[in-house]
């Protein structure tokens, strides 16, 4: 009996890991090539649905609402308004009580009672039966690739800043219809999203794709990226859909360069791989040029920084933008090469080729960066919402 119970718990745990945490096979984001995004609201309708509708109407934005059956039947007038104003209405199940999903007969009842082509499980929770039931009911599982965290007791300004930091082309944003915090968050973030060039559309207009194993792995690793950014104070150089660099201010770790010894104040460049993963080479070149102007603007604001640099197998390609290259010592070379190969496979499904497989140092002095890429635009949009670009803790 203990063995059977253990196997059942293991099966439930593996199902939740694969299908909720990684999102394998779920519809969680769309193509990264265009700056369309989907704002999705769970748990409604609520006493704040009308205020949310007014905000969306004011900015010409469309959204998708995942409604629970109990609440939808209690407010059919709001459901009708959602549809009439061009928003998409989908299924969030009958109840929002996670324990009921653990019993297969209740999960079936929960999933079958309400119409919808997309179904989003409460909390994203998956059991070993969730995908089977969805297939039998002809529903697609809809998850997300960006949590607004509007259920946390944090200032809306900090949440809006974080949302703008991690928003990407094709993102599906998880929000909630109910908390007052959500309304304030969107009042701050939505105008900025539009100014940055994002276009909020319904899930159908976004056309999300089911996550392959590689895309699911990318989704699962997002939390590690956020923790790294917080720990190291990594900033984005511009918050636009195709601003391709994050920067980390740190002492230059070497190897020693002429006039630039170890410890020189510097900025390490981190490529925003999810934003470049579907761009063509020519599109990437164009966006890198524009993004380096944003990097230059940050460097111009910090007179102590003497160079920008990065370790990558792409170092030779960086010469196109004026970067110089230098070989790395054996162990840093091996570590940077393995890291570069991993991210190339993860985001492009490819591996380095031929003599460009080994990583090198690519660097540009402060003077040369500012000469080649004079910052004609601010380093970032206006400070509101929030006080800066570093994501909140």
UniProtKB/TrEMBL annotation:
InterPro entries from the entry?
Answer: Glyco_hydro/deAcase_b/a-brl, NODB_dom, Polysacc_deacetylase_ArnD, YkoP-like_dom
Ranges for region Disordered: 373-393
Which CDD domains does the annotation name?
A: CE4_NodB_like_3
Which Pfam families does the protein's record reference?
Answer: Polysacc_deac_1, YkoP
Source organism superkingdom = Bacteria
* Residue ranges of every copy of the NodB homology domain listed in the record: 35-111
Q: Where is the composition biased (Pro residues)?
A: 375-393
Q: What is the official name of this protein in its record?
A: Polysaccharide deacetylase family protein
Q: Which organism is it from?
A: Thermus tengchongensis
Q: What is the lineage of its organism?
A: Bacteria, Thermotogati, Deinococcota, Deinococci, Thermales
């Amino acid at each position: 009996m203990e063995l059977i119970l253990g196997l059942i718990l293991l099966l439930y745990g593996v199902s939740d890991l694969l299908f909720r945490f990684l999102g394998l096979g779920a519809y969680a984001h769309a193509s990264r090539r265009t700056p369309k995004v989907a704002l999705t609201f769970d748990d409604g309708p609520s006493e704040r649905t009308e205020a949310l509708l007014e905000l969306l109407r004011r900015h010409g934005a469309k959204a998708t609402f995942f409604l629970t059956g109990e609440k939808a039947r209690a407010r059919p007038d709001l459901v009708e308004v959602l549809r009439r104003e061009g928003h998409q209405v989908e299924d969030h199940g009958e109840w929002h009580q996670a324990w009921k999903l653990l019993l297969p007969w209740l999960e079936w009842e929960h999933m079958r009672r309400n119409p919808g082509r997309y179904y989003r499980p409460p909390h994203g929770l998956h059991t070993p039966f969730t995908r089977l039931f969805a297939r039998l009911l002809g529903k697609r599982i809809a998850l997300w690739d960006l949590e607004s965290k509007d259920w946390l007791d944090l200032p809306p300004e900090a949440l809006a800043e974080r949302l703008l930091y991690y928003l990407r082309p094709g993102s599906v944003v998880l929000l909630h219809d109910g908390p007052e915090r959500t309304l304030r968050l969107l009042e701050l973030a939505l105008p900025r999203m539009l100014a940055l060039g994002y276009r909020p559309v319904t899930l159908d207009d976004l056309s999300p794709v089911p996550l392959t194993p590689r895309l699911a792995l990318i989704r699962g690793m997002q939390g590690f990226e956020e923790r790294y950014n917080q720990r190291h104070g990594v900033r984005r150089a511009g918050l636009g859909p195709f601003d391709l660099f994050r920067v980390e201010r740190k002492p230059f770790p070497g190897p020693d360069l002429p006039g630039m010894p170890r410890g020189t104040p510097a900025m390490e460049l981190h490529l925003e791989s999810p934003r470049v993963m579907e761009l063509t080479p020519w599109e990437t070149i164009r966006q890198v040029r524009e993004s380096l102007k944003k990097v230059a603007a940050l460097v111009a604001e910090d007179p102590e920084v003497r160079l920008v640099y990065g370790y990558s197998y792409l170092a030779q390609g960086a010469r196109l933008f004026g970067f110089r290259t230098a070989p790395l010592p054996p162990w840093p070379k091996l570590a940077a090469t393995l890291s570069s190969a991993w991210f190339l496979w993860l985001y492009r499904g490819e591996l380095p080729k031929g003599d460009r497989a080994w990583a090198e140092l690519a660097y540009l002095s402060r003077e040369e960066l500012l000469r080649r890429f004079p910052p004609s635009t601010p380093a970032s949009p206006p400070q509101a919402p929030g006080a800066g670009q570093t994501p909140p803790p």
